[in-house]
Every structure is written in structure tokens, then in C-alpha cells.
């Protein structure tokens, strides 16, 4: 996989530092895939060089992400792929990291000090690779130009955008660069935004989006009835629907007990994953549009190991009218593999292990993690016949042992220890130079 051209700039070729960083993402131990540990682990790695490569070099993270997207689209055989949209959070302690704020952390299920980013992934079957990202900037950041300058946020990116707006950007960008996929698959956090779904529909993009139980639908055409007279000689009021809406939860409760259809999603380590589903073509009208939207509604519930139904989820889709309901169910449930992709990226490839604060560095790190994910996807597909259960963790473990290591001999161990001590001494001396001694403290304790 030749990618060195992605790291050439007008004045420099960062291909070697890219190689060292990618090797570090594979070789450094989980939870410590930062540049200091990479230098100690990867043969030939240079901390200062990698630091500039990540934090200061102007190579394009977007170009790398687009390369990953196009290669993933090709590997997934284009129209058979799905584009998943989801967000993930990165817990932080302090206020200096780009985009950090007290905001909802979905991973922890509570408000926390963290960064939030919206990601796109391309996937097919049980495989998915991250292929695009947008870092969410809370409004407090966008209002503070000085704070934005300190972390290097370009002026054109200092505009507040909702997560739904970022999701729309990602989907349309993937389509715009030529990535091919059947539909965009979104969870209820995005499916609850009617403006996002209508924008996708208007753009000709097929979506499969989970909905909240309070989502209102109509099972018959609500083509507006004549407006009610306003009275007093005034003009007629705005149009009204000819039929009353119901929530998807109430619609589901009104269905017969034997109306559910069973399907098997996949076979896992605990046996078959089974769900039951209902399907209906329903109308959605916001009271303003000239025409209601006629979309698919599905309700699904997983079955536990005893065959008992669990919590119900609902999905809306603007897929073609003749799309089989079971296909919609499988597309909606395939989002599970993006969640697995996040897990692989964080636990095996260091997605959350960065120790950088700036806009450029964050995007560079994420782009390189995506490139590492693309590599492991290619390896899994290449060896699928002889090793059908090969995982991202397996590949990382193999590379940790077979890639050239920085520590081979006892002398290497001692050399690294001395280097760490010199860095610690330099940090102590630097701190002492800016910290005045306390009056009356004996020299021994200074």
C-alpha cells in the first residue's frame, strides 16, 4: 500500500516519520501509544521529528482520510458498502485541548470534561473502517477567537455546527469524493433530527436512521385538509393534516402479537443473534411541506438466549419502496460493527492515546489511525480463507513481535533508561528555573 506521497509537502517528505508513527500505533502497548513510548518501541523512531510531523507539518489529514475512504470503498465493493455515522468521546483533564468542554460523554453516560467528534465509517458485513471525522466545537469555543488561535483552529472552522450538521457534511463529502455506498446508517441521536433526515432525502441520499419512541407518524396519507376558517373576515389559517399522528411506540403496541417476523442477524460466539421485526410504510409531515414524506418504519426487538424479547428500537428509512423489510433490519443492526471499529481503534490502535492539544495534531493523529485501520482491514481480507477469525487485535499482536524493535539488547535497555533520566532531569531543571525558592527553606530541600 503506497502512501508516501500523502506526506510530502513543498519543503519536506514526512514519509519516514509516518512510518515510525504507524509502527508505533501497532507496536506500543495498549493505553500508551504516545510519541514517547513510540520512540522507545520503534526502531529508528525520532521523538522530536515525530512531534513536528504531528503538530507542525502541513501535510493534509483530509487527504489521508479521503485516501482511506476510497480504498475502503473499493475493498467493500462499492454499492455493497454502508456508510455509518456515529460519535465518540475522549475524556480530558484540563481546558487547553482543542474542543474540550463539559459536555455529554456517551461512553460514560454522563456530562464530563471531554472532546467529542463525529465519525464516518465504511463497512460491509462484519468489517468497518473509520473513513472521515469532524471534531465538534462547542459554542463557547467558537465565541472565543483567542482560544481558537492558541490551538490553531483555522478561521473557516471557527463556526459553530451541530453534530447533525457535521454528520451531513461527512455523508455528502464521502459521496462527493466518489466513495460508493448503499445507504447512510445513523443511530437515534441523529435520527431524531428531522432537518438532517429531510436534508439527506432532498440530496438523494438513502438513510436508515433509528428513531425515538416519541417519533410521530401517520399510517394514511395526511394530505392537508382544507384550512379551518380563521373567522372575523381574516384569511384562512395554515393547512392542517387530514389524519391524526401517533407515536411509533403507540403504533407498535397496537400491532397483533403474531405480527412479528423473526430473522437471524449473524452468528456470534454466544450463538445466533436473533431479532423480531414489524414493518409499515408511513407518512411524515411537518405541517409546512407541500408533500408528506412516505418512508419505511420498522420496529425490532432482540431475543435473549431464552427467546424472550428485549427492548424495542425503531428505524425510519427513505429506501426505495420495494426494499425488503429484512434488508432494512440488517442495515440498521450493522451499525454494531462501527461500534466494534471504535473499540478496535481505541484498544488496539491508540485512537484515544494522543497527547496533543492542537487542531492540526488531533486531525493528523486521527488520520494515521484510520490508515492503520485500513491496513488491518486489507490484511484480514487477504487472509480470510486460511484465517477467517483474524481480528484487529491479532494483527497488532503479530506486528508487535515481527516489526523491528528499538530494544533488542541489554545495552538498548540501559540506553533508553539513561535517555528517560536525562529528559526527567531537564524537566526538573526547567521547572526549578521558573519557580522561586521559598524564604527560609533549608538548602537541602530546595
Descriptors:
alpha+beta; 12 strands; single chain
Overall description:
The protein is α+β, with helices and mostly antiparallel strands. It has a domain at 207-223 and 238-322. Helix content is 38%, strand content 21%. It is built from 15 helices and twelve strands. The strands form two sheets. Strands 1, 2, 3, 4, 5, 6, 9, 10, 11 and 12 form a ten-stranded mixed β-sheet that branches. It has a two-stranded antiparallel sheet with strand order 7-8. A hairpin with a 2-residue loop joins strand 9 and strand 10. Helix 1 crosses helix 2 and helix 1 (15-27) crosses helix 13. The protein is globular, with a radius of gyration of 26 Å. The model has no long low-confidence stretch (mean pLDDT 90).
Helix and strand arrangement:
Layout: H1 15-27, H2 35-41, H3 47-55, H4 61-75, E1 82-91, E2 101-105, E3 110-124, E4 127-135, H5 139-142, H6 145-150, H7 163-176, E5 184-186, H8 188-191, H9 194-202, E6 207-211, E7 216-217, E8 246-247, H10 248-253, E9 261-268, E10 271-284, E11 293-303, E12 309-317, H11 325-333, H12 336-347, H13 359-382, H14 392-402, H15 410-434
Parallel strand pairs: 1-5, 5-6
Antiparallel strand pairs: 1-3, 2-3, 3-4, 6-12, 7-8, 9-10, 10-11, 11-12
Amino acid at each position: 500500500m503506497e502512501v508516501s506521497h500523502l506526506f510530502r509537502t513543498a519543503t519536506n517528505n514526512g514519509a519516514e516519520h509516518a512510518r515510525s508513527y504507524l509502527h508505533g500505533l501497532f507496536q506500543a502497548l495498549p493505553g500508551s501509544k504516545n510519541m514517547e513510548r513510540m520512540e522507545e518501541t520503534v526502531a529508528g523512531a525520532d521523538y522530536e521529528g515525530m512531534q513536528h510531523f504531528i503538530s507542525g507539518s502541513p501535510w493534509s489529514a483530509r487527504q489521508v482520510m479521503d485516501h482511506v475512504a476510497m480504498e475502503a470503498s473499493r475493498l467493500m465493493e462499492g454499492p455493497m458498502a454502508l456508510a455509518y455515522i456515529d460519535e465518540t468521546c475522549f475524556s480530558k483533564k484540563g481546558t487547553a485541548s482543542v474542543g474540550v468542554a463539559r459536555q455529554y460523554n456517551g461512553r460514560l453516560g454522563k456530562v464530563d470534561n471531554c472532546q467529542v467528534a463525529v465519525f464516518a465509517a465504511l463497512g460491509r458485513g462484519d468489517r468497518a473502517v473509520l473513513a472521515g471525522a469532524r471534531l465538534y466545537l462547542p459554542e463557547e469555543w467558537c465565541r472565543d477567537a483567542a482560544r481558537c488561535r492558541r490551538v490553531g483552529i483555522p478561521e473557516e472552522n471557527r463556526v459553530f455546527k451541530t453534530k447533525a450538521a457535521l454528520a451531513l457534511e461527512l455523508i455528502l463529502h464521502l459521496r462527493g469524493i466518489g466513495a460508493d455506498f448503499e445507504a447512510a446508517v445513523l443511530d437515534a441521536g441523529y435520527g431524531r433530527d428531522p432537518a438532517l433526515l429531510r436534508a439527506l432525502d432532498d440530496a438523494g441520499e438513502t438513510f436508515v436512521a433509528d428513531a425515538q419512541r416519541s417519533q410521530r407518524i401517520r399510517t394514511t396519507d395526511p394530505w392537508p385538509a382544507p384550512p379551518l376558517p380563521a373567522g372575523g373576515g381574516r384569511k384562512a389559517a395554515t393547512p392542517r393534516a387530514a389524519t391524526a399522528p401517533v407515536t411509533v411506540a403507540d403504533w407498535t403496541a397496537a400491532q397483533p402479537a403474531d405480527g412479528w417476523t423473526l430473522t437471524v442477524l449473524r452468528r456470534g460466539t454466544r450463538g445466533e443473534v436473533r431479532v423480531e421485526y414489524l414493518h409499515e410504510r408511513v407518512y411524515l409531515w411537518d405541517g409546512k411541506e407541500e408533500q408528506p414524506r412516505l418512508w419505511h418504519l420498522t420496529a425490532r426487538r432482540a431475543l435473549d438466549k431464552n427467546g424472550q424479547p428485549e427492548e424495542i428500537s425503531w428505524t425510519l428509512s427513505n429506501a426505495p419502496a420495494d426494499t425488503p423489510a429484512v434488508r432494512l433490519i440488517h442495515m440498521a443492526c450493522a451499525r454494531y460493527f462501527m461500534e466494534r471499529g471504535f473499540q478496535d481503534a481505541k484498544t488496539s490502535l491508540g485512537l484515544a492515546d494522543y497527547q496533543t492539544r492542537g487542531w492540526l495534531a488531533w486531525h493528523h493523529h486521527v488520520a494515521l489511525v484510520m490508515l492503520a485501520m485500513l491496513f488491518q482491514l486489507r490484511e484480514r481480507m487477504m487472509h480470510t480463507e486460511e484465517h477467517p477469525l483474524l481480528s484487529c487485535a491479532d494483527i497488532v499482536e503479530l506486528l508487535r513481535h515481527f516489526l523491528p524493535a528499538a530494544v533488542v539488547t541489554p545495552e538498548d535497555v540501559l540506553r533508553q533508561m539513561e535517555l528517560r533520566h536525562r529528559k526527567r532531569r531537564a524537566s526538573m531543571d526547567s521547572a526549578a528555573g521558573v519557580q522561586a525558592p521559598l524564604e527560609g527553606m533549608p538548602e537541602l530541600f530546595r
